[in-house]
Amino acid sequence: MYISVIGAGECGPELAETAFETGSEIARRGHTLVCGGLGGVMDAAAGGASEAGGLSIGILPDADRDGASPSLTCSVPTGMGEARNALVVRAGDAVIAIGGGYGTLSEIALALKVGKTVVGLGTWVLPGGQPWGVVEAGGPADALDLVEKALRGGAR
Q1: If we measure between CA atoms, which residue out of 123, 121, 133 comes closest to residue 103?
Q2: Interatomic CA distance for residues 53 and 100, integer angstroms
Q3: What is the CATH number of the domain that holds 116?
Q4: Domains in the chain: how many in total?
């Protein structure tokens, strides 16, 4: 499976650790990580995947590889700016959102619009629950359990 990990380009140590563990879990389970390829959550997730011996693909906003996470297995420059968010979402079979700002929110919306499973770790939540389709996970392993269940025919 290809799993897109989305989140802020800058994050604190707690979210970075969550992203690193998520990337590691993706790799340990034999999946490929897809991300936006830059810093913050994206870099931490790619670092986790790399350390666990997995593959990570970064879909970059610029027309060159400057600023790409050094932990990526493959970096794809697009020259598309934030429009590359649609490619990050479409490239994954499911999406895991970790923290994030408005760019992450746009990716969540795109993922839900095209029918992708979206699992959240400390990300956007609407008041009164999550009727909009994001499933909140208790941690990286739980997030992967939820993604695998959904993609293998379980409930979304």
Answers
A1: 123
A2: 26
A3: 3.40.50.450
A4: 1
pLDDT in tens, 15-34: 999 999 999 999 999 999 99
Q: How many CA atoms lie within 13 A of 72 on its CB side?
A: 24
Any domain includes 156? no
The domain of 130 spans 2-151
Q: What average pLDDT does the segment 112-127 reach? A: 88
Q: Tell me, what's the pLDDT at 127?
A: 65
Q: How deeply is 10 buried, as exposed, middle or buried, from its count of CB atoms within 10 A (0-12, 13-18, 19+)? A: middle
Q: Which of 64, 109, 60 is nearest to 88 (CA)?
A: 60
Which residues face 28 on adjacent strands? none
Q: How far apart are CA 104 and CA 9, in angstroms?
A: 10
Is residue 74 one of the residues assigned to a domain?
yes
